[in-house]
Amino acid sequence: MEDKLGVGWSKAPESGRKVVRGKPSRAFGAGHNSFEGRFEQRLLKSSSHFIGVWQPTDGGVRKRASQAIGQIEIDAHPLAGSDGLSFTGNAIVGDEPIAYPQVDGIEESEPGHHGKGGQQWDGDHRYILKTMQPGGVNVIGSANMDLVVRTARFPQPGETLLGAEFSTTPGGKGANQACAIGRLGGAPRFIGKVGKDPFGDSLRASLEQKGVDCTKLILDPDHPSGVALITVDGSGENMILVASGANMTLTEEEVRSATKDTQPTVTLCQLEIPLEAVWAASGCDSPFFVLNPAPSLDLPEALLERVTLLTPNQHEAMSLTGTFADSDSACREACAALHLRGVRAVVLTLGAGGCFWSDGRAQGHVPAFKVESVDTTGAGDAFNGALCHFLAEGVDLQEALVLASAAAAVCVTRVGAQAAMPSLGEVLALRKTHS
Asked: How many distinct structural domains can be found in the chain?
């Protein structure tokens, strides 16, 4: 029997939590849904977006008569939807999670016809079922050729140093993050622009080698591929200067055209492309819009209000909030400022200090894994790519953060960016060492 996943929204009658036990119950979904065991959902007075899991008994799309055996629990989750409190379907039958599904269709209920726990309310209920590909992530961003010089220390202004090693490697924040997802076994699609030149050919080949779908990669005959000039010191820290080239010619229309026939679980974007293209990405048909605000830019409120999850580092958070997140209290202050600007959930990356997360109701710190760092160039991209991959796979936020931290930790033990991205096996092996 195939499991089904639905995505939709409803107007809840009140705030708080409802727990429904016994059967039958109209606890969830459009139409009549019967459950054995326990169903739990938190409600807000505002609109709520949710993801849920069913096992259909009739095989139909329009009729949603369903029955689930065992315990079904859907709890609050900060990372889905457009308005109000959000939910993710971490559904459990016995001790096993239900597999993630595919289904198309649409259902609507009349005002007062649909309720949680049999409770009715005024207002429309609209329930949309969409094809959801597990792990499907659209990465909309940059692809650059990295020109890397290793040196004992960074030069001072006006100073010339003799470097040690030089290498040319594929990079760019968008491409790196897509490769990180591909290496973990996900289903990333890269949407971006490269020049019609040898660097562009190499960038595409590297992406495809890592399992990234490049059918939406655009070739620009009039501008060169982007390059990044990277200096790495003896401790593994880096300084990066980017010449964007074709990346900065990606248009709003091109993003909309590339994404119109896609239905990713997560859309991931960065700021190495024009802000207009980022705005178009934020309007894509995806439950999760994740923005890695790098490099630092002053972002408009309208864009921040569309962000499901923002992942700044300390410098980027400082640019957005005026607070340098170097302590728990400073992290809370920075997150609060971002919530006030409309961001629903925030993950502050703190380098060797791990990361700090906030969803507006709860907060927490995830420590970094202790490893010997060789090169931090791809660490942030490994973290962001892994985080989006695991969220797309249905992993809850806190566990996804631990796994993303493990991915970043493996990455910094190796030289480079895309070449340093870890496999799923490497991430899970390091995860086992985390208490």
From this structure: 2
Q: Answer whether 123's CB lies under 8 Å from 26's CB.
A: no
Domain endpoint, select from 129, 156, 177: 129
Rounded Cα–Cα distance for residues 176 and 381 (Å): 6
Q: pLDDT band at 332, cuts 50/70/90? A: very high
Residues 125, 191: one domain?
no
Token couple for 384: 């962001």
176 and 288 in a common domain: yes
Calculate the alpha carbon distances from 361 to 162, 364, 367, 420 in Å: 51, 11, 20, 35
pTM for this predicted structure: 0.69
Candidate list 3, 197, 220, 381, residue with the active-site label: 381
Please check whether residues 330 and 182 belong to one and the same domain: yes
pLDDT-derived band at 179 (thresholds 50, 70, 90) equals very high
Going by their DSSP bridges, the two strands 125-129 and 4-11 should be labelled as antiparallel
Pair (210, 252) in one structural domain: yes
Q: What whole-number distance in Å separates Cα of residue 415 and Cα of residue 376?
A: 8
Please indicate, yes or no, whether residues 226 and 372 belong to a single structural domain of this protein: yes
Judgement on whether residues 320 and 278 belong to the same structural domain of the protein: yes
- Residue 43's pLDDT is 32
CA angle, residues 90, 96, 100, in degrees to nearest 5:
50
Residues 6+ apart with CB under 8 A from 212: 139, 175, 178, 179, 181, 182, 188, 189, 190
Parent domain of 80:
4-129
Q: Which of 103, 129, 155 is the last residue of a domain?
A: 129
Specify the higher pLDDT residue, 167 or 42. Answer: 167
Please name every residue paired with 87 in a beta bridge, in sequence order, or none if there are none: 76
Q: Is 381 a catalytic residue?
A: yes
Question: Residue 426 belongs to a domain with what CATH number?
Answer: 3.40.1190.20
Is residue 295 reached through a cis peptide bond, with omega within 30 degrees of 0 on the bond before it?
yes
Residues 293 and 423 in one domain: yes
Query: Are 87 and 74 spatial neighbours (Cβ–Cβ below 8 Å)?
Result: yes
